[in-house]
Design goal:
This protein has 197 residues and is mainly beta. It is 9% helix and 29% strand. A hairpin with a 5-residue loop joins strand 20 and strand 21 (162-164).
Length: 197
């Protein structure tokens, strides 16, 4: 009886669907272990970063990631919605420039829009067809219902309360995002060629 020196993972195997058609900027950083599946195009714009084990699923519509976005590990962008109603939009998910999708967040497909500079907090869920305005912040474990429209500069807390963010720090946040991307580009080994047809 032979023994293997490789330790087996305790995590369940991730079953990937068809390899998604992609359109990448030459300046993106995408980890080798990111999972891109589906049959609609996945577009990722310049200087965006996709962490290891992030899942982008275009089975239910096209996914567009804007400039200088950060998609953290174990996120699920383009998740199927429990709502069986067909979407009127050809876009599954649009994540606008300078947005951050944090660890374990889920963004359902079906005309869902994440506005410029938004932060989707750890473990948050954005429902199908929801639209977040510019510079919105979802705190960890927040839930945005399907079809809900969140106005610009809104902070959504996990208990459902909301407030307007009147600090006026958009330029500072964008500069900080750019600096964070510079660091991540050095730390995350990138392999965009793996996802090309």
């Amino acid at each position: 009886m032979s023994s293997s020196t490789k330790r087996q993972s305790v995590l369940p195997r991730v079953h990937s669907g068809p390899k998604a058609p992609v359109n990448f900027s030459s300046s993106i950083t995408i980890a080798d272990s990111a999972l891109l599946t589906g049959n609609h195009t996945i577009n990722i714009s310049s200087e965006s970063v996709v962490h290891p084990r992030a899942k982008l699923d275009s089975a239910n519509g096209r996914i567009t990631i804007g400039r200088r976005c950060i998609v953290h590990e174990r996120t699920n962008i383009g998740a199927a919605s429990a709502d069986p109603t067909p979407s009127e939009s050809r876009d599954g998910v649009v994540v606008s420039d300078y947005a951050t999708v944090e660890v374990g967040a889920v963004i359902e497909s079906g005309g869902t829009v994440i506005g410029e500079g938004c932060v989707v907090g750890v473990g948050s869920r954005v429902g199908k067809g929801a639209k977040l305005g510019k510079q919105c912040i979802l705190t960890p474990k927040s839930v945005i219902r399907p079809g809900e429209v969140v106005p610009d500069f809104t902070v959504v807390y996990s208990n459902g309360t909301r407030r307007l963010d009147k600090r006026g720090v958009t330029d500072l946040k964008n500069k900080a995002q750019s600096r964070q991307i510079e660091v991540l580009r050095k730390l995350i080994p990138s392999n965009p060629a793996k996802f090309q047809p």
